[in-house]
Specification:
alpha+beta, 8-stranded mixed beta sheet
Length: about 230
């Protein structure tokens, strides 16, 4: 069953985004351990908010009137940039939400806002995650948990595929320790299942479930007259 405290905290975070930075409400997802581990009944360490930050979504538009101008004031006011990154992959810019802000929202877990450079679509963020079990996320706009076929097959079969070229050994050992009931298989691109699943390929686009473990989430999209949002 999904961790109720994590659900409550994510609701609080996105209500905060809706008031203070509607762009983050509309264009971010919750991914990583907060969703993966909660669905699997494993203790959650922190909450990671991912934002696609490509050409379409505004990383190239540095003007004060562009997308960057909508997000930067929020980051300057409520976050601190994280220079001690826990990411082996390049292309991420990470901000820690300030502890005082989290406490005021009733959020007890650390929260990071992570911008993925050169990515425009939400699903393309998790598509690059190095293990198949991590390819699941929560979309606040759709109010759904989105499970990729890679994630669903891992849960169904108990087999986790990982890409050795983008999965450091230390990270892999942490995942094995967290999820001892799964078998981890070295593979190439995660969406190829020739060895583990006996199929030549699996469509990497998400397989959206209509029923989720979330029972009380309900967001109203923030009202705004700005087309940029």
């Amino acid at each position: 069953m999904f961790d109720k405290q994590i659900e409550i905290e994510i609701i609080a975070i996105y209500k905060f985004f809706a008031q203070e930075c509607p762009y983050l409400f509309n264009h971010s997802i919750v991914a990583g351990g907060a969703i993966r581990d909660s669905l699997l009944g494993v203790e959650v360490k922190d909450i990671d908010i991912f934002v696609p930050w490509g050409i379409k979504t505004g990383s190239k538009d540095l003007g004060n009137n562009g997308v960057n101008g909508l997000v930067s004031p929020f980051l300057n006011r409520y976050t601190e940039q994280n220079y001690d990154l826990d990411y082996e992959e390049t292309g991420f810019t990470v901000y820690n939400v300030q502890d005082t802000v989290l406490r005021s929202m009733g959020v007890t877990h650390p929260v990071q806002i992570i911008f993925k450079n050169n990515v425009d679509e939400k699903f393309d963020i998790v598509k690059d995650f190095p293990i198949s079990l991590s390819r699941v996320y929560f979309d606040p706009v759709e109010n759904k948990i989105v499970r990729s076929k890679a994630y669903s097959k891992s849960v169904t079969t108990g087999i986790v595929l990982y890409n050795p070229s983008s999965c450091p050994e230390e990270y892999l050992e942490r995942m094995r320790a967290k999820h001892p009931n799964f078998k981890f298989y070295r593979n190439g691109p995660i969406d190829t299942y020739t060895v583990a699943y006996g199929a030549s390929s699996v469509n990497p686009r998400p397989s959206i479930k209509t029923k989720t473990a979330w029972t009380s989430l309900h967001f109203e999209k923030p009202r705004t007259g700005s087309k940029a949002l």
